[in-house]
Each structure stands twice: as C-alpha cells, then as structure tokens.
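hiii so my PI (J.) wants the whole complex modelled not just the main chain, which honestly fair. so below is everything: two entries, each one labled with what it is. i double checked the lines twice but i was tired so who knows lol
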Amino acid sequence: MAAGRKLAVALVVVAGATGYMAYLGASASWQYYLTVDECMANSSSVREARIRVGGRVAAGSLCIADDRRQAAFSLVGTGGDLSVICSGPLPDNLAENREVVVEGRLEPSGLLRGEKVLTRCSSKYNSRIPAASSQTAARAVAEKAR
Amino acid sequence: MTTLGQLCLLAAFVGSGYATFACLAGWHRADRAVQRSGWAAAVVAVLAVTAATAILGQALVLKDFRFAYVAQYSSRFLPWHYALSAFWVGQAGSLLLWAWLLAVLAMGYRFWPSRQPSPLREPAFGVLMAYLCFLVIQMVFAADPMEPSLSVPKDGAGLGPLLQHPAMLIHPPVVFLGYACWAVPLALALTALFTGRLDAAWPQQVRRWALLAWSVLAVGILLGADWAYEELGWGGYWGWDPVENGSLLPWLTGTALIHASLAWQHRQVLKKTALLLAISTFGLCNFAAFVTRSGLFASMHAFSHSPIGWMFLALMVGLAAGGVGLVVFRRADLRCQKPITSIWTREAVVVVATAALLLLAALVLLGTLLPPLSEIFFGRKITVGTALYSNVLIPIGLLLLAATAVAPLLHWGEPTTVFRRKMLLLAVGGGGIAAAIAFAAGVRHPVGLAVAGLAALAVLALAGALLLDARRRRPEKPWLGLLPALAGSRRRYGGYVIHLGFVCLAVGVTGSSLGTRQHEAVMHEGETVEWAGYSIRYAGLTQRELPEKSVFAAQLAVSRAGAAAFTLLPAQHLHRPQNEWSTEVAIHSTWTRDFYAILHSGKGRERVSLTFIENPLMRWLWLSGWIAAAGVVVALWPAGRRAARQSAAVAPPHFVRLQRRRAVAACLTAAVKKEAPMG
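here's the output for the full assembly
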C-alpha cells in the first residue's frame, strides 16, 4: 500500500475513534440551556432532564448557608420567579441582582435543584455597587464571624 | 483630557485608514512618494494610539473620574497597579490595549532592520494598518474609552475582588499581544496569495512570527490557568468555558501552522494547509473576541451584549471566505511537489499531527458553538459539558505525544535508517520500562501508563537523536560533538526543547486530571483530620484588618509521613468597597503533588468549613510553560555573523553558483579597472 494511502487510512481511523469518543462525551453531558420563562413554560418536557437556566437573582431572595455549601434564591422571570436550591461550592460573587447560570434538574414541584452556579465578573457589568461605609463593613464581618 | 483622548482616536482612525490605502496603492504602483506618505500616516496613527493609551493609563492611575471608563472600573482605594490593570478589564479599554499592541508590533515589523529584505513587507504592513483601522473604528463609533462621565462621581465602582490578583496585571495583556502577533502571519499569507510569491521564503518568514505569537499566546493561556487555579477556589485550572476555548482555538491551529510551514519549507507539502492555517488562526483570534463580546455565550469572562462582537465575526467570516477563494485561485502554484514516500518520514508525522490538531480544534469549536447553532436549527439552546472535551483529548493527546516522541529520529523526505530504527526501538523499550515503573508506583489508569511510557520515549528519542548528531560530527569521540551539534542546529534543538515542554504539559495534565482527590471537612479548633496520608490540624482562625479589606485565615498544620510538615493559611477576604467576599486558597506545591486548601466560611472562631484537594504533578504543568518559552528563545535567537557565514557555506547549490558568478564578475571588473590606465 502506498504511503499516502496508509496515512489516509490511519487518519480515518483516528477521526472515527475521536468522533465516537466525542459522541459518548456529548451524549453523557448535553443539557438544555433555557431562560427562566422558557424553563417555566416547558416545565413538563424538561422535568428531570439536566438543564442550565440563566437569569437574574431576585432582590431579597438570596439565602446562603453558613458553610457556603448551599444557597436558596429565586431567578426573575417575566411571568413569575423560579425557585432554586443550589448545593456545592458557591462562587464568591454570588449576590442579589446578579446574572447567574444554574446547572441542575427541575423537580416535579417546580423547584430547580442546582449543582453548579456560574456568575460573571462583577466589574464587567455596568451596574454600580454603592461603596459600603466602614461601619457597614464591620457589621458584615461581625455577622459572618457569628 | 477626554476631548484630547477622543481627538487622538480620531487621528488614529484617519491615519491608519490613509496608511492602509497609501501603503497598498504605493506598493502596487511602485510609487515611492505615495508609499512614503503612507509611512508618515502610519507613524501618526501609531503615535495617536500611543497617546490615547497614555491618556487613559494616566487617568486610571490618578483616579480621574471625569472619564466614565475610570469611574466604572476603578475606585479611590484601589492600589495604583490594580487601577492600571482596570485598563483591560472593560471592553473599550481592552480594545485600546489591543490596538496599541498591534500598532507597536506593526512598526516593529516594518522598520526592524532585516538581513534579507522581503518583497512582502510593504503590502503586509498595509494589511496590518487595515486591521489597526478596524480596531480603532470600533472605539470611535461603538466603544469609546474616552467617554466623559455625565456627572463626575466622588468614587468609582471599583474592580471586582476576583480581578485583584497579580495575574490580572499580566495575563490579559499577554493574550492580547498573542492575538496581535497572529496578524503578521495573516498579512504575509494574504499578500503572498495576492502577489503569487509563494516560494520557499514564505514559510521561513511566517514561522518566525508564528512561533513568537504561539509562545506569547501559550504563556498568556498558562497565566490564565494559573490565575483560575489560585483565585477561583475550585481546585481546577481549565473549565472548557467558551472564552477559554476561544483562546485555545488559535493556539491549536497556530501549532498546526508552525508544523505545516516546516513541512512546506523542507518537502514542499502542506502549502495550502499552511496558508489557510495562517488565515484561520488570525480569524479564530477574532472569534475569541466575538465570544467575549457578543453576549451569545454563557461565560464568567464574557462582556455584556454589544454589537462589537458581530463586527469581529463579520471580519472572521470575510477572512475565511476570502482566504479559501484566494487559495483556490492559486491552486496551481500550491500543488504538492514531493509526495510522501514513506510513513516513516518526518513529513508523514507532521501530516498526522496537523490533522490531529485540526480535528481537536474542530471539535472544540463545535462544542463552543453548539448553543447558538442548536437554537438556530432545533429552536432550543443545547450545551455540552466537559465530558465531551475530556473524551476527545485522550486519543488526540496520545497521538500528538506519540508523534512528538518519534519525530526527532525521523528524516525529512527519506525513510529512516536501520540504525535510527534500532535507536527508536531502544527508546520504545525505555518507554515500556517507564510505564512499568509507573505501574509499580501505583498508577493503574491505562491513559496514565501510556503517557508515562510516551513521555519517557520522547525524552529518550530526543537524547538518541542528539547523540547521533554528535556522532556524525565527531565519529571518534561523540561526546565532544554534543556542543557543536547543539550550536550547529540551534533552531532545530530549540524546537525539540519546545517538544519537551509539551511532554511536561501532557504529564501535568494527565496527573492532575486522573489523580485528583478531594475531601470536605467541618473542623473545630484544635481538631485533627487524617486523610489520604495527611494529618491536618486546625489551630484556629486569625483576623487581620487592612485598609480596604478584612482577612480571616484558618491556620492549618499539615504533615505527611516521610515529608516535612508545613503550615497553610486558606482565607476569606471581605472587600469593603464592594462589600464582597473572596476566597483565597492556600497551596503547598511539590514535584509530586499539590496540597490545596479552601476555607469556605467560619461559624464563629471555633468551627470552620474546609475543602482539601490533592492534585498530582501540577508543577510539571507550570514548568511546561517555562521550558517551551526557553525553547522559543533558543529557536528565535538571531544567528551571529559566524553562524550566518556558516549557513552561507551550506547554502543551496543555486545560491553558491550565484555567489561564484558574482565573485568572478567582481574579479573581472577589478582586472578591467586595473588595466584601464595602462591602456
């Protein structure tokens, strides 16, 4: 067999094996990426499937456990809010009014059980965060330490 | 000052636009006057961009909140170096930095003295000015870094705590410098295709710039990975995020370009591939900008929605279409002249490696583009997880490692000799022994064993190639030929050093991917936890007040049988200007493993929540960057006069003939001049 043909066969074998590995990886890890409204509108079809939902954390809804391993919050939608409970490591900049992406599963009760939260770097947004006074900061430290 | 800055940008726009026209038109008509006016306009454009850069930099350092950009990304209490790093945090500032780096690079390319003047230099400079104009247009019309604040605030919004890291000072500028460098291979490819000057000089010119761009981008990517590892607090360094993929794609195609240009130079093969790779690598740099700026991709790095991303995409699509059209037009000049005669040749290995790199790039691109593509074709956005990339990386990574391992013992153009094959078999035997040692050391994963074997094979094959080279130079005393061999083929051995860097990268990635262990614990003051052979004692929580933040650190005393004990201080910082917490991990690094501790929170001083991670062989991953950078310096170091004379001595026959003719002509002229007065 000519060298060129041998090379072509080898490349086809490598491409086939890699394609098959890619298929296995994609089929094991694919998920829908939805907005809050899409998630709530298609709740029956996406139930128990792995999904990613992007939205803004509702003001006054964020509650983070003391050990920072669990957070509960709502994602704002136009037709209503989506309740989320997220377990696992939380990003440092998880905060109210911040855009986040939650990976997890939608339970029959309509609760999104998240396993991972992604946030964007705060300084790449236009929202201006008012500077906290030293007293406010000291209070926050004391609360966190308690 | 904002008005002055805007005038500078306007001057840069007009100057770069005219320079593009004048440089290309002057070169096309061979009109020196028009060309000179183009150079003058280019100098004006570069000076104007430099002035705009200095104005924004000064405003950031002096906290001049009359600039909306400064008010948005800086604050009174921000240290000056982080205030300066805010330059490249926002969209407008990062565009200005990119434009300035490109402008300086373009001037360096045009006016750097060269021993071999290239006919492509003038038109290529015009192409670089066109790209500078493209970047400046976006600042003038869409993202103005000099925009004045509507009402001057007393304090700025500040920089996010995650971005207040030493890596922020260097990682983004290095990545942008890498993107800017890839513009030169593009300019050379376009001008070569337009002019039809597709001789053997092209791959040599392109390879130098491609190697520089490749190394800068590699360092930038590794710095980003190091930042993620130390700052994000999840124990990893690469998340296959769309923005990370965006920077990886040009690096993959750039690696393929360097190897394809070598194959072109030595064997006149892969010409079309090399040209298309030069164009597509630069196109993928623009794709990275599209990913970050379009708002289409969910990424922690992405900027908010903006029309700028679509301009980058339009440029990329235009380049792809134009590049393919030009290659088709010049297909007759780009025919493969020397077909591959054996699979045991270096060009065959280069073909396999190039195909593997392109396959990996295609799959990464597909995975990155899946959300918007699935929305277009199926009406729903679908994303894929890291499993896709990890699965693909295994076969392709092993193939690339095998190609890297055998390449030094193969020849260009002819099958390898029997002696070299024996040497290769010996190296394979050494690789087998290394895999057996890894097995005895506890490695059980087949991929881990394969990487151990191939890494050893690569090192042994390289040592064998060096020994053979030395033996060829000094057959009686090969060890005396080692230094002459290294000095005589410096560029080739520089390339092999880069290959060693890749071997280290493979070892580090494999170790940290397959051997990672994690443990979570809630610990009371004075408590000791035993895990994975470590004894970890929590001594207590310390509190420190700094001007802009409060620091809470857990004191951990860690010991392991047979190793020295060490103390770690994982911490949580409260940044007062943003009222935001940040996690500061603590890492103890050795050549075999990293011990990584994360403090999540403290419930009072008595109880803390912690995560411990053991990441094997991480140091090898960071070492790979240093080794590759050293290899690039060796490969790109200019040849001295002596070396230049030596290379002239081994110049191709037609060059030697030409020199002989010139020498004969000079002798005859001298003889005629001598005889003339006598006559």
